[in-house]
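A common beginner's mistake is to predict each chain separately and then try to dock the pieces by hand. The better habit, illustrated here, is to supply every component at once so that their relative placement is modeled jointly.
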Amino acid sequence: MTSTLREPVTLQGRIRTELQKLHDAHLHISPRVLEAPQRARTRILGRDVVNLASNNYLGFADHPFLKERAAQYLQRWGAGAGAVRTIAGTLQIHEDFETQLAAFKHTGSALVLQSGFTTNQGVLGTLLQEGDLVVSDELNHASIIDGLRLAKATKKVYRHKDLTDLRRVLDENPTDGLIMVVTDGVFSMDGDIAPLADIVALAREYGAVTYVDDAHGSGVLGEQGRGTVHHFGLQDAPDVLQIGTLSKAWGVVGGYAAGPADLRDLLINRARPFLFSTGHPPAVVGALSAAIDLVQQEGGFMERLWDNTRFFKAELHRLGFDTFGSETPITPVIFGEAETAFEASRRLLERGVFAVGLGFPTVPKGLARIRNIVTAEHTQDDLERALNAYEAVGREMGVIGG
Ligand SMILES: Cc1ncc(COP(=O)(O)O)c(C=O)c1O
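With all components supplied together, the output reads:
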């Protein structure tokens, strides 16, 4: 018998092939490097730029109040947690912060995990079992999609914010198991808000619970930034799960699940990222506790965020740009083809504005865009500088008239 000899796959070969695929599909990314802190104005490629690319909604990432508390916790509690939380890595400050977060969210308890990404993996992976049905908005974040890959439930997708389609999916997939509808609170690419009151009402007709990933609603919507669930007055609903991140408006890193004490207890015992990955270092906990204090002690952050958002959107519309129905500080400007969006992003950077172009598969084909995120920290001057650059680039490229 003759054996067919083939070249064994080498590590080098694998890496080269995969990179080539990315280049061929124009999907290869090289992150821009910030040469100054994460602020409304920063430095890139040696140039001062207005930063419209971050998720730093409230301007907390480099806020002195957070940095001071982080430094205090670092000095008092050390550099690291030293173990996973369930073994020896739960410090008093971890528990205190979770109590503070639960009080802020008006929930019985809260559990903090390493990131928003791992929170979706941990919570979805824990709650969903074989025989359950989970129905997910088609534009939900990648971490939800990956979290659902870990769940053994039947998984279905409904068209973006389409309640008729959601009803169809629920009708077509009856089960005696747990039924869960999963949605982002605010959608990260379009900046639109989930119609949560309607989703929850529909879910209830089918005895389903609603899981809200509020990564982009926390710190942005609801009283003092309590999030999308509060924005819709649903914080006391036992069938609405509040999941979110501490990495965006709150300026640091982490994810949370806020709900009744027994949810926390179950997640501590079952959520794999919680069980098998080290807890946050003290400086992170300190900065986060300061962020929640700051938004309650000193008003004005959300007001500035929303004033800036309204001004920026209105001016973009006046110039003739399409912001795709965005309702929040996430403000996409649609360019159509990916190459056009990437070229516009390059030209904006040359004019001192940092805003990132996004194409397929991050957003649908033909809807490539630049995603702008306005923050509370931007001044009128920053926004006017950005708008002037947009106007010039839009005209040069024939995206707007004049
Ligand atoms: C909806 C949504 N969920 C989760 C995440 C992940 O959050 P984190 O950056 O804390 O891992 C993001 C961030 O991109 C997000 O937009």
